[in-house]
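Revision sheet: structure tokens.
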Amino acid sequence: MRVRLAMLVLTACVLIGAAGALAPHGAARATGNTNGVAGSMPAYYDHQLFTINFKQLTTAQATLLAKNGQQNVIYQSDPGLPGGQPFISVIDAIPADGMNPLWAEVQIAFTLGHTPRQLFSDDEIAAAVASGEITLTSTNEMYRCSVIGKVISTSIRVAGAAPATGASPAAGRPANAPTWGAIMRAYR
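Predicted:
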């Protein structure tokens, strides 16, 4: 009797495990809780790639935007980059540099005649605004954003990313630049 019960339990575990393994990765991720790992994404801060946990505060955002002058800014460009690559968000603070967990989203739009490119710091964004390359628009959306880690793997680099040595991303793609696929694999 014990052997039959053990076999039944083992068979059930194998079937449940197989069903989970066969589920599409996108479906499993889409149903994840955005308070947890499903809300994680890459973001640049001063040419360094970090992992952030990002969740929109829909019910409290109007009040937070109006009454909290201490929020940070997360820059995004929803249209993305040429070739269908996403624009990796840029943040203006990390925990050691005056970070507040409340972030206001600002959208970047590249002006006519300027090809969208990845920007890597709030200083580059300010320079691009000053030169007329981009315009910024507040979305009036508030997020809770935690910096949860620094991407330290040298095998993960973003297409168009300039090395931290100060080389300009506009000068072309560095030889050691990553692909978007490498970043996606790192976050799965």
